[in-house]
Amino acid sequence: MKAANVSCFVFKFIRIHRRELCRARTAGQQSSTTQFQQDCSPGHHLPFNRCIGHILHRRYSTESSVKDCRGLLYRNHGDPSQVVQLEPMELPPVGAKSVLVKILAAPINPSDINMIQGTYAILPDLPAVGGNEGVGQVTEVGSQVTTLKVGDWVIPRDAGLGTWRSAAVLKEDDLITLPSDIPLLSAATLGVNPCTAVRMLSDFEALKPGDTVIQNAANSGVGQAVIQIAAARGLHTINVVRDRPDLQQLTDRLRAMGATHVIKEETLRRPEMKDIFKTCPRPRLALNGVGGKSATELLRQLQHGGTMVTYGGMAKQPITVPVSALIFKDVKIQGFWVTRWKKNHIHDEGAMRTMLDELCSLIRAGKLSAPACAEHSLQDFQKALDAAMQPYSSAKQVVVM
Ligand SMILES: NC(=O)c1ccc[n+]([C@@H]2O[C@H](COP(=O)([O-])OP(=O)(O)OC[C@H]3O[C@@H](n4cnc5c(N)ncnc54)[C@H](OP(=O)(O)O)[C@@H]3O)[C@@H](O)[C@H]2O)c1
């Protein structure tokens, strides 16, 4: 049979378009789309106040905090365990429209690793601080800040802030508040994966209770969020994971989260699938975070007219789409990138707020928990990075400051 090849993950080496290229002498300053240039080396004098503002309102409150500010920087692309270093960082003054944030916790996501390797679709200028997600607490605000106050929990509005550091001076507009009554690990991991799960479950098929969603990489951060949000919406989920020695334990854990079925990749090609479809309808939506054969097998399970949304390419393999799936089953093949969604909704505060409110309500109701996490201190970053790149780990590595 003829097949159409769809590249699942385009590793374009696109440099971030720098709307406001602000070269900062230190790492505390960010634009909304890119991490500011950071250079702590002596003799490098760059106009670091250009975007943050010239007026110095209050300096960082304690001398020791300034001294203690540290971050995980990389000066070259490459193997994260080789190029990432823990370095002391000088914080710039807090400008009129900026705030000082103590970072509380930040996860290590695959996109962070890809950014360091230089293979992600957006790349900050180097040197850069790693990390795109995390939660922090505002400890000081500039004189013209209106939406944030001391004590607020905040998360990045967009990718590229460089969250693997103990503190940062950030623009008010680059942050969005979160209620501080949710668990720290939930807050630290809320802005990327659960948001991706919400959008994919909401924006592609008009799913109703009783419908089915199938996904691979079901034990990933995205996958765990999909299971829980889908369960809260009354949807069945068929969750595909790679075989492993502790498969039963993983299956039990995902089922406890609300997974309807948990199956191995191999099962997708077996007659057992017929038994599964006696208990739930064929999926209207397939969520693909892997690519390659795994994606093709998901596609085969879709019902007539269903949609497969690709959001990740962990296997780094293109997808083969059977021609018959397009012609006779009329399936739709689409992609989703939460970074693009956030950019498209940058002026739609309500859309982001509604999504975060929904997620926080689920958390408070005990229907959405953080993914299984392994916590590390900043000093233990090598261990955290190594663990984040291991297969079959089933845990999100989180740096807790
Ligand atoms: N498009 C978007 O907006 C968006 C948003 C969030 C995340 N993502 C992407 O989604 C993917 C998952 O992110 P995450 O943070 O949820 O990941 P994560 O929690 O770190 O989990 C990684 C997942 O990938 C699986 N995996 C790794 N290598 C694999 C391979 N060769 N074949 C099959 N599965 C493999 C792992 O399975 P094992 O346990 O079997 O190793 C695990 O389920 C990443 O590609 C990420 O970049 C995209």
Explain the overall architecture.
- The chain contains 13 helices and 20 strands.
- By secondary structure, the protein is of the alpha/beta class.
- The protein has 2 domains: 23-189 and 372-400, Alpha-Beta Complex (Quinone Oxidoreductase, Chain A, domain 1); 192-339, Rossmann fold (3-Layer(aba) Sandwich), CATH 3.40.50.720.
- Strand 12, helix 6 and strand 13 form a beta-alpha-beta unit.
- Helix 5 packs across helix 6.
- The longest helix has 16 residues, at 349-364.
- The N and C termini lie far apart (54 Å).
- It comes from Clupea harengus.
- It is found in: Mitochondrion.
How are the elements arranged and paired?
Elements: E1 3-6, E2 23-24, E3 37-38, H1 63-68, E4 70-74, H2 80-83, E5 84-88, E6 98-107, H3 110-117, E7 128-129, E8 135-141, E9 153-156, E10 167-171, E11 175-178, H4 184-188, H5 193-203, E12 212-215, H6 221-232, E13 236-241, H7 247-257, E14 261-264, H8 272-279, E15 285-288, H9 292-301, E16 307-310, E17 319-322, H10 323-327, E18 332-335, H11 338-344, H12 349-364, E19 373-376, H13 381-388, E20 396-400
Parallel strand pairs: 2-3, 12-13, 12-15, 13-14, 15-16, 16-18, 19-20
Antiparallel strand pairs: 1-17, 4-5, 4-7, 6-8, 6-10, 6-20, 8-9, 9-11
Helix pairs in contact: 5-6
Bound molecules: NADP nicotinamide-adenine-dinucleotide phosphate.
NADP nicotinamide-adenine-dinucleotide phosphate is lined by residues 109-111, 192-193, 196, 217, 219-222, 242, 289-290, 311-315, 336-338, 391-392, 394, 396.
